[in-house]
Amino acid sequence: MLIKHKPEDFVVEELAEFTPSEKGSVSIYELKKKKLDTFEAVRRLAAKAKLPLDRIHYQGLKDRQGVTTQFISVDRGRLDPKMRVPGIWLRYLGRTDAPLTSDSLRGNAFRIVVRGLEVKDVQRCQERAARVVAHGLINYFDDQRFGSVVAGQGMVAKEMVRGNFEGAAKILLATPGKRDRLPDRRFKTLVQKTWGDWEGILRKWGNRRNVSMIRHLKRNPTDFAGAFQRLPAKERAIHVFGYQSLIWNESVAHYLGKLIPPHKRSSSGYAAGRHVWPELESDEPALSMPESWPLVDHSTSFEDPAVKRAVAQALAAEGLSLDRFRIRGIEGCFFKHYDRDLLVRPGGLRVSPPSSDDANEGKLKITIAFSLPPGSYATLVIKRLFGRAPARGDRPVSKGKRGDEASQALEEKERGKAKKARNRKKNKNKAKSKARKAKGKDKGKPKKGKPKK
Question: How is domain 152-233 classified at the CATH fold level?
Fold first, then answer.
């Protein structure tokens, strides 16, 4: 079973609303992108238009491997929809009085092609679709929320809570990730080895992200909390919210483990732990559960003792208690309590009839379409429909090779590409040098032809 075999297999359309205003100072655009994450797309647009990055606002982060459409707003500036940026298409929608916020977002519509299926997989999907329509599914956070864990780097905010800001900085700046490109892995390894030589690191940093942290550490070599103060607020919030999301997931799993008898539940792994699922037939009555579950901070209070116990269990597994679940020492960096719906019901869930998979001989493919509210994960819907996690086409593993061997093969391929690029550049520079020398010699020679009278 495979998703994201090609970008067109994973299509996401953001659903949002805004009130147009002819005299508004904010321009609204529809951004369509392919094989770029939202951060990179916005960074490229800002660089091309020569606009400060903080002038461009967006409501949600969209996957890199897919064709995604979302709304962006530009405060006190304009983008030219005709400008050429690889992987990006813009459409001007009008003006409004203020940048779009999360309140403008209504959700996302998905169209996902699932490949490499057997007949039994299709049958299972069709049966489980009726259950999902009847009962919805637990609104867990999925792997996308825990990118640094997936990459094997750890969690930045986990170290922040412990007051270990240097450890948090090492994860962010100097820990190679499994999905990093080879040059990035090498550079992070270099930063590890020269950790503390901020002047030397800054000279080699170039235009990489988070350069403001390095500049601060050059001036204040041990002020790692201050360095995080220089990190863009949105990026800092992603790390903070990631750790808070882990506590949400794990506390809900503890709660369901106590609530549901073993024969009526199942579990599945994700990047940072395990999801626990109720297994109910479509005609069975729904479980009696809270409508929402808290994303906690140190001051959260509980009305339901069972919820309080489950949260305490999740925090204890991290070596924490509720009163210690806070970040001290970085102004404006904190956990914010709010309630998240415990269940989510995909809207308009449709499963297409199966057809031959043109990418996998002898296999079938189907297209699944649905919509979700903001903050819910399409990959969870796929996992529940098939009872297992799909492989992903944007994370290839060489045939017949295990992970480490495949990783080495990919590294060798990247090294080969880098060597070819260096040779091309070297040959180009030689040609330019040769042309300059030839031009210099020509200047000293008399011009051919008859002299003027």
Answer: Hypothetical Protein Yqey; Chain: A; domain1 (1.10.1510)
CB 352 within 8 A of CB 366: yes
| pLDDT digit string, tens, across residues 377-415 | 999 999 999 988 888 876 644 444 333 334 344 445 545
Q: Which two tokens stand for residue 195?
A: 């950790």
Long-range contacts of 141-144 (CB under 8 A, 24+ apart): 141/245, 141/246, 141/248, 141/249, 141/377, 142/270, 142/377, 142/379, 142/380, 142/383, 143/270, 143/271, 143/379, 144/63, 144/377, 144/379
Backbone CA torsion sign across 399, 402, 403, 407: negative
* Spatial CB neighbours of 349, under 8 Å, sequence gap ≥ 6: 129, 132, 133, 368, 369, 370, 381
Coil, helix or strand at residue 360: coil
Backbone angles phi and psi of 164, in degrees to 5: -95, 75
pLDDT in tens, 258-273: 999 999 999 988 999 9
Say how far apart CA 35 and CA 199 lie, in whole Å: 35
Q: What CATH code is assigned to 19-99? A: 3.30.70.3160
State pLDDT tens for residues 276-332: 999 999 899 999 999 999 999 999 999 999 999 999 999 999 999 999 999 998 988
Q: CA distances (Å), 442 to each of 96, 435, 436, 445, 446, in order?
A: 61, 11, 10, 5, 8
Answer for the pair 259, 285: CB distance below 8 angstroms, yes or no: no
Beta bridge mates, 169: none
Q: Which residues fall within 8 angstroms of residue 249, CB to CB, at 6 or more apart?
A: 140, 141, 270, 272, 273, 275
SS3 of residue 335 by DSSP: coil
Integer Cα distance of 392 and 380 in angstroms: 14
CA distance 161 to 296: 14
Residue ranges per structural domain of the chain: 19-99, 152-233
Q: In this structure, are residues 319 and 366 in contact, taking their beta carbons and an 8 Å threshold?
A: no
- Cβ within 8 Å of residue 40, ≥6 positions away: 64
Single out the residue of 374, 336, 123 nearest to residue 244, CA to CA. 336
Distances (CA, A) of 106 to 15, 70, 98, 237, 375: 5, 12, 17, 21, 10
pLDDT at residue 328 in the model? 92
